[in-house]
Write a structure and sequence with these properties.
With about 775 residues, the protein is an alpha/beta fold. The chain contains 23 helices and 30 strands. The chain is about 35% helix and about 20% strand. Helix 15 packs across helix 18 and helix 21 packs parallel to helix 22. It binds zinc ion (3 copies).
């Protein structure tokens, strides 16, 4: 048999993850000659050898790829036979049109971790130890192809020992761009007075730990930005942080040293443990055990806690267990209110000095800020709540090749999304766009992604709301660049996001139970409790909640008590003086509210399901005023008793979902002294039963079996789990978010999908 030659091209996350040395070693194992090189669209390989060896080589590429690699496609074709001495790694080829996905930042790997604590290792206790299988990526990359001079490590010249490792294909650090050691790499220090670097290295870590032991607040520069940390078992420390950060109640994320410690605090399935200890290392939000030593101020009114594991070597050194050191730390984003997380030393000094008692800093610049990701689990699978570090900028694969478009994203929980080929690049979590700094960050990030992934959008999809920052941005660009613009209704975007994620044919009609907070409707009112029938191109409203006024607009969102009274008013039910929301408002407020409702002054209509949850929460006395988004609904969910099976009646008036009987039954339960726990459970069960009843009607009327569940309300796991069980039992096919969050973070993906297909359609 004579040898043959083949060309292999591999697409996916194959750069900066040890792919070429892997191919190099694999080629040697199979007695192949030839070469491998990075191209800006992936990895190219040309090999010569026996046919059976080539086949085995191809199989092994997929079967034993390095841990951080993600192979999307492998294309192979025969080429004229060529002879090469041995197998080589050759220079990158960069063509301006090509692009490749970039690896997200990954948690410190097991090998680096054991070297970190090995006194014989030259990187013993070095806070920046990393290798091809772990460490910073996306947060330090300035340009592609991914190469050290194009990262924030360019300023650190490698010492001869590091360089030898970097250049040796047999080494774990071969072409690990952030490779460094104590002799040549970045270092840490502590600032007890902002701007004064008074302790370095081990002394800095020791002193930083002491701050935490004493209940003080520490600002820590991490991988994608700063954290504010304190002892999570000290109520005094937690309240001090809340007071200084002006954050009265929104839950704090936690970090514990190892899985065993986290297991003491929250209920973890095997799948949840795997997610927690994965290289992506997100915050995992799970039911908390009662009676642990976590301070009650960490997540007041909440029955879940969010934990993550130390994901950088610095976190490991800082959190090393000792008898006096806290078993869990609060690790919350280092920012002010709704501003983006701070990622630069000088900005941290300026903005966080009124919060932090000391700063643990380092001199490895963060090029791109990125928040921690947050996940929970549904049906044994990860369910995203916030998608950022470890996940962005990994694209979501699409079933068809898409034109280059931008989905500009929503106003709250903003992300944007760019498409190209069979990829949808949802950005990392950007945040609240009414904040000026966030908006600047947004503009910057879009241009950054366009450069990195070499995308120039031909069209932009944007929200119908005329005052949204992303809408203004879009209209500006459409004018300046002559692009096509496609307005996309907010809840249609939710539906489309679910469809793209699940590779549903864009022409296929499905139904969506889009239960959400706020979204601008096609009739100019505020939607949010919508049952939609449609596909990626278009959709219509099959059912929706009976609209009720939002007296005072945003004020009604901040004060669920107003929402409760407005809901009673809209349904013609009296404001009994014994009701909690009636008692919560002053006489004057009460009169103004009544006036607003009766004369229709600043009381826009909404069909929002999120607001209905707020109303019920206040009605039964759970939460009258909120200090963070969805607080009233979260606290209502936390109260629901698991074993309560009953539910309340409701009614359909044509396409309108009418809750009059539901409210009457809740009022009756209240007057008979039923517990909040029982009412909450029955209320949740009602919405699950309603979902089933509507799904059945849709099946009868439209012969549709596929039901998408999207919108912020589906972050309510009590509701989600019961709805899934009912709908699955009835034989429906459920589309649940697993790649993008069900909340407004998925809207940009939906906008991009709708825009891409409308653009294709119009061109035909
Ligand atoms: Zn490593
Ligand atoms: Zn070195
Ligand atoms: Zn939404």
């Amino acid at each position: 048999m004579s040898p043959i030659s083949r060309h292999i091209h591999i697409n996916g996350i194959v750069q900066g993850v040890g792919f070429r040395p892997f191919i190099y070693n694999l080629a040697h194992d199979h007695n192949l000659t030839g070469w491998v090189r990075n191209s800006s669209s992936g990895v190219d390989i040309e090999v010569t050898g026996e046919a059976h060896a080539l086949d085995a080589f191809l199989l092994a590429i997929r079967a034993s790829a390095p841990p951080l690699a993600q192979i999307d496609t492998v294309s192979v074709h025969d080429i004229a036979q060529f002879k090469e001495d041995g197998f080589k790694i050759i220079h990158s080829q960069d063509r301006p049109e090509d692009f490749i996905p970039i690896s997200p930042d990954m948690a410190v790997c097991a090998d680096c971790r054991s070297e970190l604590f090995d006194p014989r290792d030259r990187r013993f206790r070095y806070p920046f130890i990393n290798c091809t299988n772990c460490g910073p990526r996306f947060s330090i990359i300035k340009e592609i192809p991914y190469d050290r001079p194009k990262t924030t490590m360019a300023a650190f010249e490698m010492c001869p020992v590091c360089r030898a490792e970097y250049e040796n294909p047999a080494d774990r650090r071969f072409h690990a761009q952030p490779v460094a050691c104590p002799d040549c790499g970045p270092h840490i220090w502590l600032e007890q007075t902002p701007g004064v670097q008074d302790l370095a290295g081990e002394d800095a870590i020791k002193a930083a730990r002491q701050y935490l032991v004493e209940g003080k607040i520490l600002a820590i520069k991490g991988l994608g930005g700063f954290h504010l940390a304190c002892d999570a078992t000290s109520q005094e420390a937690v309240l001090r942080l809340r007071h200084r950060k002006h954050r009265p109640a929104k839950p704090f994320a936690l970090m514990a040293y190892d899985l065993e410690t986290v297991q003491e605090y929250i209920q973890l399935s095997r799948a949840a443990e795997n997610l927690l200890s994965s290289p992506q290392a997100p915050i995992v939000l799970m039911p908390a055990y009662k009676g642990t030593d976590i301070a009650p101020g960490v997540a007041p009114g909440n029955n879940k806690l969010g934990f993550m594991l130390p994901y950088t070597p610095l976190h490991l050194l800082l959190m090393e267990p000792s008898p006096d050191f806290p078993k869990a730390l609060v690790m919350t984003s280092g920012n002010l209110a709704e501003e983006p997380v701070i990622h630069q030393n000088q900005v941290a000094r300026e903005k966080l000095s009124s919060i932090a008692d000391a700063f643990l800093m380092h001199n490895r610049p963060i090029h791109r800020r990125i928040d921690d990701s947050v996940f929970t689990m549904v049906e044994g699978q990860p369910y995203p709540i916030r998608r950022a570090r470890g996940f962005a900028p990994t694209p979501i694969s699409t079933s068809q090749s898409l034109p280059q478009v931008l989905g500009a994203g929503p106003q709250m929980k903003n992300t944007f999304c760019l498409t190209r080929d069979k990829y949808a690049f949802i950005s990392h979590y950007i945040g609240e766009m009414e904040n000026w700094e966030t908006y600047q960050d947004y503009r910057q990030a879009i241009s950054d992604y366009q450069t990195l992934f070499r995308i120039s959008p031909q069209a932009i999809g944007y929200d119908l709301h005329p005052d949204y920052a992303a809408t203004r941005y879009t209209l500006e660009r459409i004018q300046a660049e002559g692009l096509k613009g496609y307005p996309v209704q907010h809840h249609h975007a939710h539906l489309a996001a679910c469809m793209v994620e699940h590779h549903i044919d864009p022409q296929q009609k499905i139904a969506g139970l889009i239960f959400d907070g706020t979204g601008y409707g096609t009739d100019g009112t505020i939607w949010g409790g919508e049952v939609l029938i449609g596909n990626t191109l278009e959709c219509s409203r099959a059912y929706s909640l009976k609209p009720v006024p939002l007296p005072g607009g945003d004020l009604a969102v901040l004060k669920p008590a107003r929402m409760a009274l407005s809901t009673l008013w809209a349904y013609g039910l009296p404001w009994e003086e014994s009701l909690a929301p009636v008692r919560a408002l002053s006489g004057q407020e009460w009169e103004i509210l009544q006036n607003q409702l009766e004369k229709n002054i600043n009381a826009p209509l909404t069909s929002s399901m999120g607001r209905f949850f707020d109303a019920v929460s206040a009605l039964i006395g759970v939460r009258m005023e909120i200090s963070y988004e969805a607080q009233a609904a979260i606290e209502l969910e936390a109260l629901a008793e698991d074993d309560e099976l009953g539910y309340y009646p409701w009614r359909l008036d044509g396409p309108q979902i009418n809750f009059k009987e539901t409210l009457e039954a809740i009022l009756k339960d209240l007057s008979q002294g039923a517990s909040q726990a029982a009412i909450s459970a029955r209320f949740h069960n009602t919405i699950a039963q309603l979902s089933l009843a509507i799904a059945e009607l849709i099946r009868e009327t439209y012969h549709i079996e596929e039901i998408a569940l999207s919108g912020g309300v589906w972050q309510n796991l009590y509701l989600l789990k019961r709805t899934i069980a009912l709908l699955k039992d009835a034989g429906f096919q459920l589309l649940i978010h697993h790649r993008s969050p069900p909340n407004d973070e998925c809207v940009s993906l939906g906008q991009a999908a709708v825009t891409a297909y409308r653009y294709l359609h119009n061109k035909e």
